[in-house]
Every structure is written in C-alpha cells, then in structure tokens.
Amino acid sequence: MNTVIKPLASEHFEQSMELSSFAFQYSLTPEQLEERRKTFLRDGQMVLGVMKGNELCAQATLLDLYVYIAGKPFSMGGIAGVSTWPEHRRHGYVAKLLSELLVRMKEKQQAISMLHPFSFAFYRKFGWESFIEYKSYEIGSEQLSAILRGQQRNEQAGTVYRIADWQPLQHIYDQYAKQYNGMLQRSENWWKDRVAKQNAVYSVYEDEQGQLQGYLIYEAVNRQMNIHEFVALSYEAEQGLLRFIAQHDSMVEQVKWKAPVNDQFIFGLDNPRIKHDITPYFMARIVDVAAFIAQYSFTPAPAHETEQYRIKVVDEHAAWNNGIFELCIASDGSATIKQEDQFAQANITISVGALTAWLLNYQTWDTLVRFGKAEGDQLTMKRLQNRINAQTTYLTDFF
C-alpha cells in the first residue's frame, strides 16, 4: 500500500499521542492527555504524518514560532516530535517528512528552522547545523557559603523577593532574549504551557529605582535546588540573585543551573574549581537564504560604500537555495541578495548549514574552512566576517 504525507487532524490525536509516548518513552495521565488535546493543533502548530491507509507510520510537528536574531524577531519553524514506529523505520519516512517540512516552512515565510536533535550527524545530512551550546554549573553548599561570604564584602543595593506568578517576568525576559541569537519571542500561551511550572518559585531582583532587573524560576526539592531560568539584565542583578541563591546554603546541598556559553561566573569566585560543563544543544537551518538575508542586520561599517560578495550556497534539499547569490551589504548594515546565473564566478562556497552557523555567530569563517565546510578567498571571507553580528547564541527553552 502506498504512503502519503499529510497534515494530521483532530481525529488523529490518539494515534499521534500513542506514537509519541512510545518513541519518547513517557506516559500521560488521563488529565494530562486532555491538556495535550487542547493544544494539539493550537497556535499554528502543524503535525505532518506519513500515513499508510489509516495507519500513522511516522510524524513530525512544525511549530509556528519567532526567534530573536541580532535583536529582531524572525519567523521560525520549530521542528519537534519526529518519531517513527519501529516496524516502519529505515524506509526514508523521516527524510520525506523533512523535505516536505522545508517546502511548507518556505510557504509560511519561516526563513529559519530550529530543532533539538536525537543525532547531530543525522540532521546535518539535511542541512541543519549545530549552533547553540550552553554552560551548566553545579555547586555545593560549602561553595554557596563561600559565595555568601564574598558577597558580604560588596552588598547590593537592590532587593530580591518572591512573586506569585510569572507575568512580571515576561518584560525582563524580552529584554534579555534580544541580546542573544536563538532565543524565542515567547507568546502568552508559550509562557502558560511551556514555562510556568506548578511547583516552581518565582523570585525577582528589583533595583534601587524600583525596576525589575532579573529573575529566577526554581524548585528546591530533596536538598537540591534546580534553577530552570536565571535571567539578569545587569551585573548588579546577577550578583543580587547569586546572593539570594547562596542564602539557601542551609537547606540545599547542591544547586544546578544553565547559562550562555560565554558566561564568566567562575571568574568571580575565590575558588573557581567548580563543576561546569559545556553541552551542544540545538541545531538550526536557514530555510530560505534570500528571505533570511532580507531580514538580517549586518554590522554597520564606517565607509559609505556597498560591499559585494558572490556566494555559492550548496543545499541539496532546498533547490531554491542551491546556487550562486550576489550579496550586497550597505554601510548601515542592510542587505540585498539576488540569485546569479549558474556560470557566475563565486568568491565564497559554503554549505547552507555552515552559512547558518556563520551568520548566527556560532562559528567563524576560519573554523568553517578548517573543517572543510567553506572555502574561498581569505580576504573576502575575513571582510564578510567583520560584518556579521557578534551576539552569542543561546536558548533557554526546549521543544
């Protein structure tokens, strides 16, 4: 029997949940299942399924999201819930789903896509590339006490206090998120469904002027403090929140939290030998090169001249990207791009995944060249590198 790829409807909910719970090894209570039913196809969410007659063989969810890049929101296709029944694996169903998702994302004008991979190598074959790492910290009660002693030498003027709900956090988060490439522009439903946690504590830092400058979302259970989000808009707020964390030293034995990969928390410690790891996290892919460049803000240049580049993009899975483009960057950072004749001479050749990592400032041109993901004239690539926005990549969410 032939298979067909089509969007799932509400009548496919049970089949979809059955496959998801099997593939990702979780179970839902009847109450949780009903909550999932309410959000199954909400907020522009689409679930594509590979159907053989009435049987669901494989599926993938496309989320309609926005992500900050250089401080601007980009329409982003978030891919989640990619799953296949064991008896239907190795038939190329996921490859077909990804190809169909690329077409649908382009139609929806989603210039970029992000996903959390089960295998980096697998998704690299389809153009997605690693672009976010995070730093995770783990400290014990003795180190908390040491932080507290150090903080006493430099008292903070602001205050930290608990609040009952998440709404005041949204404005702080939005300011923080714009500082990084990859952070979501969260909707109210996203806060309610994905961020707000039933047993979590919400604490905010307020400065002397009465402005909220940071927050924590955390849980303290079984003498362990898990910080789900640590957000600070200033060094003062960061130190105030650290002092608040350290004040839990009598009730917790361990504190864990995540931070951007360029975070320098340990540099400020008297004893920086604490456990910290760097973990690759999400992947990204430019869906439509022309649409992405039209929105992208390059770094302004002092000269009042337009810089021109001819870039050959290699994209085996999105024909509209596969070719040579002329990129023109104005002195104010705005850019235009147009596809050139196939016989035009390119001075940079790069895969779509490497281009994504480059423009999001996850990797520099020399690293991409070293690993064989880009090639071209060295001076040209260095000149373009100087125009790429220098914000760090980060993401506090998961999907």
From TrEMBL:
Which top-rank group of organisms is this from?
Bacteria
Q: Which residues form a coiled coil?
A: none
- Please give the InterPro entries that the UniProt record associates with this protein: Acetyltransf_17, Acetyltransferase_Eis, Acyl_CoA_acyltransferase, Eis_dom, GNAT_dom, SCP2_sterol-bd_dom_sf
Query: Mind listing the GO biological process terms from this record?
Result: aminoglycoside antibiotic catabolic process
Q: Where would you find the membrane-spanning parts of this chain?
A: none
* Residue ranges annotated for the N-acetyltransferase domain, each copy included: 3-154
> Sorted alphabetically, which PROSITE patterns does this protein's record hold?
GNAT
Pfam families registered for this protein in UniProt: Acetyltransf_17, Acetyltransf_9, SCP2_2
Query: Could you cite one Gene Ontology molecular function of this protein?
Result: aminoglycoside N-acetyltransferase activity
SUPFAM superfamilies annotated for this entry?
A: Acyl-CoA N-acyltransferases (Nat) (SSF55729), SCP-like (SSF55718)
Q: Which PANTHER family match?
A: N-ACETYLTRANSFERASE EIS
Provide the protein name: Acetyltransferase
Name the source organism.
Answer: Paenibacillus montaniterrae
